[in-house]
Write a structure and sequence with these properties.
The protein has ten helices and eight strands. The protein is an alpha/beta fold. It binds manganese (II) ion.
């Protein structure tokens, strides 16, 4: 963390996200969006490497790192308007799962308790247990909705006999009460995991799980309508958006540990996360499972992840303008007439 001048994994976080100001936790002001890295991949079941995700996502861009990104068509600059700061990476004891998760919970909870909106750059998906738990600590256990994009349900009963791994975070969140099953909306599930008895458990928990097949047959817009409704339920405090990059088709996002063919296209997910930012009260988010050493050619996955974060932030900035009764900047690109 910038806070104490050290990082658990020196050199991984080489600069702030797109040049936004680097801040310490005690400098945070309410409403600020806070980028924080969780370079954790000791919950991976297949190919490791997501510990290098935060640095790759921060660097996944070709424009100057000047802390400005005026969206071409939205008429907002999310980095300036929200505003956005970066507190660096959570120092983690490499290889120690529970202690690492506790460290992430503490940082995320402090960000949220100070009125910030944490955006956690993973890391493998194990860290969503910590991210959503930290947000729930600030906003109320059981009151956070979770919109989860993934090829995999991540509701496994255990991780080789252990509680935590990247296939179990959603189950642990339900069991702990941080996020009840009925507040989950999962989008993009496909492939050959988990087994039927786990799917039965998910149904018992009233999880709303949309397969990729359902997204195709019913239309992604219908599915996202369901997510917006769950996030806006009367007694919900807000929504935590968790994006596993492997929800995207591996042809467009190869740099990930457990690629599963047949996923969303980048355009669909970019539009969807922006819509969630605009239509929901986002109180936390993460983007996980970017593993840059498999990201060939051309760093496609890290670059997509960078833009997915930006699109979510753009939607959030659009929402703030709307709430404040202000419209977009007039000098945005509009269709020719
Ligand atoms: Mn996942």
């Amino acid at each position: 963390m910038a806070q104490d001048g050290r990082r658990a994994t020196p050199g991984l976080a080489t600069g702030s996200f797109l040049g936004v100001p680097i801040a310490t936790l005690d400098e945070l002001t309410p409403g600020t969006v806070v980028i924080v890295g969780a370079p954790f991949d000791w919950g991976a079941t297949h190919r490791p490497g997501a510990r290098f995700g935060p640095a790759a996502i921060r660097a996944g861009d070709y424009l100057p790192a000047d802390g400005r990104r005026p969206h071409l068509t939205a008429g907002v600059d999310p980095l300036v308007e929200l505003p956005v700061v970066d507190v660096g990476d959570v120092p983690l004891p490499i290889g120690y799962v529970e202690a690492s998760l506790e460290a992430i919970v503490e940082v995320v909870a402090e960000i949220a308790e100070r009125g910030g909106v944490p955006v956690v750059l993973g890391g493998d998906h194990t860290i969503t247990f910590a991210g959503a738990t930290g947000v729930a600590r600030a906003h109320g256990a059981g009151r956070v909705a979770l919109v989860h994009f993934d090829a995999h349900a991540d509701t496994g009963e255990d991780h080789y006999g252990q509680l935590h791994g990247h296939g179990t975070p959603m189950r642990r969140l339900i069991e702990s009460g941080a996020v009840p099953g009925h507040r989950f909306v999962q989008i993009g599930l496909r492939g050959y995991w988990p087994p039927p008895e786990t799917v039965a458990w998910m149904r018992q928990q009233q999880m709303r799980s949309w397969s990729m097949q359902a997204c195709v047959e019913q239309g992604l817009g219908t599915v996202v309508d369901d997510a917006v409704a769950a996030a806006g339920a009367e007694d919900a405090a807000g929504v935590y958006v968790s994006v596993d990059i492997d929800v995207v088709d591996p042809g467009a996002a190869p740099g990930t540990g457990t690629p599963e063919p047949g996923g969303l296209q980048p355009r669909e997910l970019l539009d969807t996360v922006r819509r969630l930012g605009r239509e929901c009260h986002v109180i936390g988010a993460d983007l996980v499972e970017v593993a840059p050493h498999y990201d060939q050619p051309m760093d496609l996955t890290a670059r997509l992840a960078n833009r997915l974060v930006l699109e979510l932030l753009t939607g959030m900035a659009e929402r703030r303008r709307h709430v404040a009764g202000r419209g977009p900047d007039p000098d945005r690109l509009r269709p020719p007439v």
